[in-house]
């Protein structure tokens, strides 16, 4: 398999899960501004959407959208128990959390990573992110370790990556202590450390 990624972007969640399952895979970095890969390929020919992640399977198929890629990897490695069984309520709950992170929390960060966003745009984005974090904080109010309970799942990988962006845009996670503890807990996982190191995010 090959993962097309951008350091620290949402593709990091898929990278983490590939390492969690011990997959054999290649990494190819993408310059999403220039739409080229590190090997000089036109990324638009690989993923017409133009953003990461994209996963090239061993059969040569290209899979896009992080939530889809995460579940695909989990389902190919059922023994790792990174996603509940398809058709179960727990699987629907996993998809609920994946969709929330993708459509609400992830998108809320947009202005902070947009070159022409104004200061006012970023202030509104911070306010919006704070409301999303309030909801996530409430989820951990019942004492759960991870989103689905005691077991780490692909949804936790995605939530970790997006929540960790707060550190790069001046949002202090100390305002959400349970979420901050979650981020710290996930960051201690060997697969997370290995993925972040490989992307040049940690020493």
In short:
The chain has 203 residues and is α+β, with helices and mostly antiparallel strands. Helices cover 48% and strands 9% of the residues.
Helix content: 40-55%
First-to-last CA distance: 26 Å
Which CATH C-level class of the largest domain is it? Mainly Alpha
H-E order: EHEEHEEHHHHHH
- CATH topology name of the largest domain: Glutathione S-transferase Yfyf (Class Pi), Chain A, domain 2
For the record, the count of structural domains works out to 2
Number of distinct beta strands? 5
How do the strands line up in the largest sheet? 3-2-1-4-5
| Total count of helical runs of at least 4 residues | 8
Strand portion: 5-15%
Shape: globular
Structural class designation? alpha+beta
* Mean pLDDT level: 97
Name given to the CATH architecture of the largest domain: Up-down Bundle
| Rg calc | 17 Å
Low-confidence stretches: none
Describe what this molecule looks like in 3D.
The protein is of the alpha+beta class. The chain folds into 2 domains: 2-80 and 191-198, Glutaredoxin (3-Layer(aba) Sandwich), CATH 3.40.30; 89-189, Glutathione S-transferase Yfyf (Class Pi), Chain A, domain 2. The protein has helices at 11-20, 43-46, 66-76, 89-108, 119-139, 154-164, 177-187, 190-198, and strands at residues 2-5, 26-31, 36-37, 54-56, 62-64. Helix 1 packs across helix 8. The two termini are 26 Å apart. The mean pLDDT is 97.
